[in-house]
Every structure is written in C-alpha cells, then in structure tokens.
Amino acid sequence: MLLRSRAEAEVLERLGRPLLEVRGVTLQYKTKQHLVTATYRVDFNVVEGDRFVLLGPSGCGKSTLLKAVGGFLKPVEGTITLKGHTIDGPGPDRMMVFQEFDQLLPWKTVKQNVMFTLVASGKLNGRAAEEKALHYLEKVNLTKFADSYPHTLSGGMKQRVAIARAMAMEPDILLMDEPFAALDALTRRKMQDELLQLWEGTRFTVLFVTHSILEAIKIGNRILLLSAHPGQVKAELNSTGEDAVDETTGLRLSDRIHRLLFAEQGEEVSMTTQLGH
Ligand SMILES: Nc1ncnc2c1ncn2[C@@H]1O[C@H](COP(=O)(O)OP(=O)(O)OP(=O)(O)O)[C@@H](O)[C@H]1O
C-alpha cells in the first residue's frame, strides 16, 4: 500500500474539494425592531471554473448570500469555506462587482482605478500594477479609455472597468451582484456576451446573482433556485446556455425554472424572463 505524507494527503483532499462550500447557511439581519431571516439553511458547492448563478425572486436573499461569501456578514447557522478555510471577513481572494455605476473613484482615471485596488491591497506596485491594469483593460476592450475619467464613460463601460478592476486582483472567485441590471436591454445583452468571451479566455470562477431567468440560463453553467423570502434552495440545475426544450418534459428550461420557483405559491413575484431585464 502506498503511504502518503500528511502534507500530500492534505493537498489531495483539497484538490477533491469544491472551491467554495456553503453548508446549511442561515443569514439574519438584526434591527432594533425586527429579526429578518434572509436565507434558511442554504447548501451549495462551487467548483473551479464554475459560472454559478443564484436565481430567485426579489428579497429571497441572493445579495445577502453574496455578502456572506464576501465576508461582510457571518452566518448564524452553518459554514462557508473557500479552499477549505472558513470565511471570517473580506479578503482579496473574493472580489465584488456591484450593480451601481458609481463604484469607481471619480477623481482617478480608468487605469488608476484598476491600479488603486492592486496597490492598496499590497498586491502590486508601480510599473507591475500598471502593466496588470492595462492587461485587464485590454481584456474588457477599454485600452483606448485607460486615461479617461469615469464621468466620460457610458454605464456599460463603467461596468467593464469594475470587472477589469476585480479581475486584475486575480481572485479565487468573482462575486457579481446583478452587475448588468441597471443597463439598457441592448447593452445588457452585449455585456453578457462579453462576460462569456472573457470567461472563455481565462476560465475564472464566478458567483453571479440575478433575478432574470434568461440571464441565469445564458450566464450560468449551474443555477441555484431559491424560494421567496426567506431564501431556501428549491433546486440546482445545469445550463448549456440555451433556453432549449427538454425532450422528456417538452418544456423549455425557462418554463421549468418558472414552475419550480412558483409552482406551490402560484404567484408571480418580480421575476423576469426577458434577457434584457
Ligand atoms: N441591511 C439590512 N437590514 C435588514 N434587512 C435587510 C438588510 N438587507 C436586506 N435585508 C432583508 O433581507 C432579505 C433579503 O434581502 P436581499 O437583498 O439579500 O434579497 P435579494 O434576493 O438580493 O433581492 P433583490 O433581487 O431585490 O436585490 C429581504 O427581506 C431584505 O428586506
């Protein structure tokens, strides 16, 4: 029998583990008047290279889950581990991209915005930070705008800067909270295509929040369906990127998702099946 050293055994164990493990996670907000349970005993695993989507109606706790993975909120029950280590605060191994267009520092150029995070986190300095920033700005097709200020950019361009800034940190996982929700329908579709192209080139791992069924199908290779408030796991599905008809059920994936999410309640809570919304 082959005997392995403890270190080797640990490496092998880690290789077999998912990158991110969310186990029985209940998340709550305590306000003076109320105790709000945002998610209840949620389980899911994200493996390296996954485009993992959290999908569910407004208020089901998608953003709260992302915040907890980001390390901004601690579970009252359950555990969240990244590479086998319990998350106990924010860190450069998890970078967030938000919906808002005002994530950039207005007094810094596009390139300086990307460099700022690299320098402030102590990851890179000087010429190395500049090179890394330019490398990722090229990936999001913004080389020409490296010296522009954020106020001169469109909403879609600002989101591309925010994506470049997060990617330049080369995190273990990119956390995206409805990053395209505030864009017009056409730009949103273009950004979805660009994100997929970017993924083809680098195969980064992304945890993506949306309440658009078609966006989830297009972006995700795996989709976690969460029930309405408090968010609980309803199902986990694979997606090939197409809203294809399943031969067994005769249903489109979007119809199946809709049924899974709303079958019991018979309700229509602010979910959309339009790609651009
Ligand atoms: N800071 C907070 N204090 C108290 N309650 C909060 C806070 N943030 C969120 N909540 C509550 O937690 C629940 C989940 O909110 P969350 O924003 O995570 O949902 P969501 O699924 O991301 O919704 P949306 O799609 O509308 O963004 C909601 O009931 C919300 O009102």
Task: Annotate the secondary structure layout.
Elements: H1 6-16, E1 20-30, E2 35-46, E3 51-55, H2 62-70, E4 77-82, E5 85-86, E6 94-97, H3 110-120, H4 126-139, H5 155-168, E7 173-177, H6 185-202, E8 206-210, H7 213-219, E9 222-226, E10 233-238, H8 253-262
Parallel strand pairs: 3-8, 3-9, 6-7, 7-8
Antiparallel strand pairs: 1-2, 1-4, 4-5, 9-10
Brief account:
Helices cover 34% and strands 22% of the residues. The chain is an alpha/beta fold and 277 residues long. The chain is globular and about 55 Å long.
Task: Describe the overall structure.
By secondary structure, this protein is α/β, with parallel strands linked by helices. The protein has a domain at 101-170. It contains eight helices and ten strands. The protein has helices at 6-16, 62-70, 110-120, 126-139, 155-168, 185-202, 213-219, 253-262, and strands spanning 20-30, 35-46, 51-55, 77-82, 85-86, 94-97, 173-177, 206-210, 222-226, 233-238. A six-stranded mixed sheet has the order 6-7-8-3-9-10, sandwiched between helices. It is globular and about 55 Å long. The N and C termini lie far apart (58 Å). The relative contact order is 0.16. Adenosine-5'-triphosphate binds next to strand 2 and helix 2. Adenosine-5'-triphosphate is lined by residues 29, 31, 36, 38, 56, 58-64, 211, 229.
